Amino acid sequence: MAKKKDDEVVSIDGKEYSLNKLSDTARMQLLNIQFVDTRVQQLNNELAVADTARIGYTNALKQEISKLDKNAD
Fold first, then answer.
1. How far is the C-alpha of 29 from the C-alpha of 34, rounded, in Å?
2. What's the pLDDT tens digit per position in 25-43?
3. What is the largest CA-CA distance in the chain?
4. What predicted TM-score, i.e. pTM, was given to this entire model?
5. Where are the domains of the chain?
């Protein structure tokens, strides 16, 4: 049987399933997974921003400390 072009499939554990044949509950779980995946990506992006800021603050602190070391000599 040939697949229609508009028959979307999802791959779960290496096996493909037609979205049209999934139960409403299964489709809801897929939406939940998509939501959580999006949120995880958002949090990873926020972590990257915070990590970059931390590096900047650390470099600024080192610069200030080096001024103290120069003045102590």
1. 9
2. 999 999 999 999 999 999 9
3. 84
4. 0.71
5. 9-72
